[in-house]
Amino acid sequence: AAAAGTVGQVRRDPMAMLPFCGYNMADYFGHWLGMQKRVKHLPAIFHVNWFRKSPDGKFLWPGFGDNMRVLKWIVERVRGRAAATETPIGFVPSYGDLDWSGAAFSQEQFDQVMSIDTDAWNKELIDQEVLFFNLRDRIPRQLIAERQQLISRL
Q: Tens of pLDDT along 39-95?
């Protein structure tokens, strides 16, 4: 509740830091990007969306009890013991990379969860332009380049 916003509307607030960052967010991004040169072992960063819904409004992921399947894959991936498939938005597990013991979650359901909605991503990139515009005077070139590469991949 540090920064109120419209419920259900995406707020361009990277890592929910805007209310707490004591300096320009573009400089903040530059600080973290600069860590690549100063830190020997950078942390692996993974993103999940447990709340993705089907066109009929139902959650695609089976439930919180199944989150550990993905978390186990993440740990194994960090340790170099799990495979990943490259997609336009990053590396993701394949159905067979997760332990489905005791679960009734089909390959078809998994494929729906993992599908990439290119139209939604393109809309996201257009919306993201506002953040980049607001930081335009100091935004690190690396972020601009990464965004351009994402646009190209999509």
A: 998 889 898 888 899 999 999 999 888 999 999 999 999 999 999 999 999 999 999
Whether the CB-CB separation of 125 and 154 falls below 8 Å is answered with yes
Token pair 């919180």: residue: 64
The percent of the chain in helix, strand and coil, each rounded to the nearest 5, is: 45, 5, 45
Q: Cβ atoms within 10 A of the Cβ of 9, count?
A: 6
Residue type present at position 148: Q
Handedness of CA 12, 14, 16, 22 (dihedral sign): negative
What is the three-state SS of 40-98? CCCCCCCCCCCCCECCCCCECCCCHHHHHHHHHHHHHHHCCCCCCEEECCEEECCHHHC
CA distance 49 to 53: 10
Beta carbons of 109 and 60 less than 8 angstroms apart: yes
- Do residues 128 and 12 touch, judged by C-beta distance below 8 A? yes
